[in-house]
Structure formats: structure tokens, C-alpha cells
Design brief:
Strand content: 15-25%
Number of strands: 4
Mean pLDDT: 94
Radius of gyration: 20 Å
Shape: elongated
Helix content: 25-40%
Largest sheet: 4 strands, antiparallel
Length: 159
């Protein structure tokens, strides 16, 4: 199922679920103008097709004591496919890393990381990230203020 194959009802379902995935099927069906059984079938089809990848709870990092949000640009020493894959796999094992993207340009990877405070962030970069094999150097930037941080993907009805 691709974006072109989504019906207007599918799009409405996705828009609502991205705002509140805890909504009951009955309430969802009511909002999209369907009865509950066909609505649930639609949601299950969207899940089976992979359009809905997973359902999660979004947490407030500050209330969990994670005051530092940072981006980290990483350059590798050796630019081989195996070296890049090994680095990417290692990022999955680091709880501090929220996101890891392979990039074009001067940097090989861009990471989004969390830490309790500046000191723990410094320890993470110095003792864990820089000590990894194949890491040439890193450059980090601390987030001073969040103006927009959303997870919803814009899905719109054509026309």
C-alpha cells in the first residue's frame, strides 16, 4: 500500500491515530464516519501493509531527567560498507542514541542523542563514542530550545 493507494478514509484514520493512538476503535470509527468493524479492518490493513509501523507512547525527556538533547556528526576512518554497517549496528546498542542516519557530505553519520546532563553527555562522547573502532572524529551541537519536535508524518487528502 503506497500513498497513492490510500483512500480519503485511510488518510483520516492515519491523521487521527498520529495525534492519539490510544483512541478506541469505536471513537475512531465515529470520527471517520464508519461503523467499528470496517474501521478496525482498515486499521489492521494499514498495519499489515506496513503503513502503520508501530504504536508507541511519546515520553517527556525532561520529566525523565534527560536534560541534554544533542546532535552528533560522526566521521569514520575507513569508508567501507562493512565499516558503516558495523557502526550503525553499534548505535542500536547505545541507549543514549535516539536516531542514527547515514549522511551525504563531510559527515558519515548524524546522531540524535540524550543525556542526563552536560557531564554525562561529555563522558558518553569521550569514553564511548570516540573510543569506538573506526570513529575518526565527532562534532556535537547541543539543543538550546525545541521549537518543533513532532513525529507525525503529513498525510493529506489530494485535491
Amino acid at each position: 500500500m503506497t500513498g497513492e493507494m490510500l483512500s480519503p478514509t485511510d488518510i483520516k484514520i492515519l491523521q487521527i491515530l498520529q495525534r492519539d493512538a490510544s483512541i478506541s476503535n469505536v471513537a475512531l470509527a465515529e470520527k471517520v464516519g464508519m461503523s467499528p468493524s470496517p474501521c478496525l479492518r482498515r486499521v489492521k490493513q494499514l498495519e499489515a501493509s506496513g503503513v502503520i509501523r508501530q504504536t508507541v507512547a511519546l515520553l517527556d525527556r525532561r520529566k525523565l531527567g534527560l536534560g541534554v538533547l544533542a546532535t552528533i556528526q560522526v566521521r569514520l576512518q575507513r569508508h567501507t560498507e562493512e565499516g558503516a554497517e558495523d557502526f550503525a549496528k553499534a548505535m542500536n546498542d547505545l541507549s543514549e542514541i535516539l536516531s542514527c542516519w547515514a549522511m551525504t557530505g563531510r559527515q558519515d553519520f548524524l546522531l540524535m542523542a540524550l543525556a542526563r546532563d552536560i557531564e554525562s553527555f561529555g563522558d558518553f562522547v569521550t569514553h564511548r563514542l570516540l573510543s569506538m573502532p573506526n570513529v575518526r572524529d565527532v562534532q556535537s551541537s547541543l539543543v538550546l530550545k525545541e521549537y518543533k519536535n513532532q513525529t507525525a508524518i503529513p498525510v493529506k487528502i489530494s485535491g
